[in-house]
Structure formats: structure tokens, C-alpha cells
Amino acid sequence: MPTSAPTSTSHCQLVRSFSLGPPSVSCSYVSQSKMCSKVLILATVVVCSVMAAPQKRLGGPVLGTAESQAVILAQEHNHDPSGAYNYRYETSNGIAAQQTSYDGANAAGEYSYTGPDGVLYRVAYNADTYGFQPQGAHLPVEPPVPDHVLKSLEEIRANPPRDQEFNLAALDAQIARLRATLG
């Protein structure tokens, strides 16, 4: 059954293309065409205006402030072929850091900076097989270990398993760390 063109006074006609797709309708209203092009131009202008507007900076220093003008005051770094290294730097805005590693895998260091509240924050850390272990006066501390947990670990220490994978030194380190939480 053939498809007929819409029956309105809009001077629209059915256009069949040589492709396998469905027929499309083409309208020849001059005023409608002008309106569509005006809307398209207006939409393009709006999109361009939005894209050209200054973007709000998320985080980071504001241009023109001491933070954005910071320069490196001191910087040292040493790398050994064995993997050992150390570095140190200091910037004009009060940021300082240093780190040392004797094997390229485990490291110890510290960094400091002045926070937005004007307080100098300092963090000392060890990074080894037990993970990143930061310490600083502003950082939260873990709560004291419950007595039953410490007693259980001490019982394991007194009668260690015969498993070759068991690491007695690691257990001793954990017990010492947990005892330190008791105060």
C-alpha cells in the first residue's frame, strides 16, 4: 500500500531516497526555514558564550596569590644504582618535604605545610611492608586496644604456631604497637 504525503497546506512533500531507510518529509516553508536557522544560530551563540566564560577553579591556588607564585627555594635528590635514594625540597610558600630509602622499597620521611587556617602541619611517616604509617599532632590516633585482643596476641606469642609462614617478628611489632595505644 503506497504511503501518501501529509494533507495540509504546509507545502510538504514526501521524499523517497534511494537508500533502504524510510521515506522522509521535506517542508518548504520559507518562514519556517528562517525560524529554524535563527534558533540554530541563537543556540550556537549561547553554547559558545557558556564555553567562553571564565571557568571556576576547583581547588588549587588562586592566580595572583602567594600560593600561585611559589618558587622552589631548595631541592636535592640522590639516587643510587642499588635503589636507595633520598630527596628534599622547600618552597617559598612554606611547603617542605624529605624522604629517604635505603632499599628503594621502604621509605621514611616527613612533610610540612601551612594550612588555610594558618597552622603549620607536620607529618612524619614510614612506608614499608606494613603500609604508609603517618604520624602528626593533627592526625587522629587509634583507640586503645581491647584487653582481650592483646591477651590473645600474647598467648599466640607464648605458643607460636609451627607454620613456616608465621612471622614472629611481625607479631612482636604488632604487640608493641598495640601496647603503645594503652598509654
Overall form:
elongated
Strand content: 25-35%
Q: Give the rounded overall mean pLDDT.
A: 80
Q: Name the helicity range.
A: 25-40%
Q: What summary fits the major beta sheet?
A: 6 strands, antiparallel
Rg is 35 Å
DSSP strand count: 8
Q: Helix and strand succession?
A: EEHEEEEEEHH
N-to-C CA distance: 92 Å
Could you list the spans in which at least 5 consecutive residues all have pLDDT below 50?
Answer: 5-19
Topology:
Layout: E1 12-15, E2 24-27, H1 30-52, E3 72-79, E4 85-91, E5 96-101, E6 107-114, E7 120-128, E8 131-135, H2 147-158, H3 168-180
Antiparallel strand pairs: 1-2, 3-4, 4-5, 5-6, 6-7, 7-8
Helix pairs in contact: 2-3
Give a structural overview.
The protein has helices at 30-52, 147-158, 168-180; strands spanning 12-15, 24-27, 72-79, 85-91, 96-101, 107-114, 120-128, 131-135. The chain is an alpha+beta fold. The protein has a six-stranded antiparallel beta sheet with strand order 3-4-5-6-7-8, with no helix packed on it. The protein has a two-stranded antiparallel sheet with strand order 1-2. α2 (147-158) runs antiparallel to α3.
From the structure above, extract its key features.
two-stranded antiparallel sheet; 183 residues; 28% strand; 3 helices; alpha+beta
Offer a quick outline of the entry.
With 183 residues, the protein is of the alpha+beta class. Helix content is 26%, strand content 28%.
